[in-house]
Design brief:
mainly alpha; 5 helices
Length: 171
């Protein structure tokens, strides 16, 4: 699963950069949008896989009830986080292919720092945050990836990249 997503990122980067280099921005726009379609399908599969097969997978590796109780929700949240991260990564690949490496760098930095900062608040219930235990790290991962995804999407749709995504002519 993860290698397939990385392959999609690499293919997106190669195809978008080729189209941008040829001066065919409408084609680059089309390729990037189709990459988002494939990412949506991948993300849906990962979420379904994670939500429905977590218990089966934990039983298959023979974890105790105590470990299952601690990890099942966290694993489900991780599958959702991977789906959100996939959108951040394919957007980053499109931006990089168009020559904008700083926007994905900023988004990734904010994602990492946000995850590091909010994880203990959600895990241990610091300040006004609820104590969520291990699941708090999963929620922090989703929240931080969502912030990075929004940053990359804003750069793609409103930023100063050569690639300015629009839904005009979407097919």
């Amino acid at each position: 699963g993860f290698m397939a997503r990385q392959g999609l990122d690499n293919v997106t980067r190669a195809m978008v950069s080729r189209a941008v280099g040829a001066g065919n921005i409408p084609l680059a726009n089309h390729i990037a949008l189709q990459s988002f379609n494939l990412t949506a399908a991948y993300s849906a599969a990962m979420i379904i896989f994670g939500l429905f097969l977590t218990d089966i997978l934990l039983k298959a590796i023979g974890v105790s009830k105590e470990v299952h109780d601690q990890t099942a929700l966290y694993m489900r949240l991780q599958f959702i986080m991977v789906a959100v991260m996939s959108f951040r990564m394919v957007a980053a690949s499109s931006l990089q292919a168009a020559g904008d490496v700083m926007s994905p760098l900023k988004a990734t930095t904010v994602t990492r720092v946000t995850h590091i900062v909010i994880s203990p608040f959600l895990m241990f219930g610091w300040s006004i945050a609820p104590e969520m235990g291990l699941a708090g790290a999963g929620v922090a991962g989703i929240a931080s990836q969502l912030i990075g995804t929004v940053m990359n999407m804003m750069a793609l749709f409103r930023g100063h990249s050569r690639l300015q995504l629009t839904l005009r002519g979407y097919y």
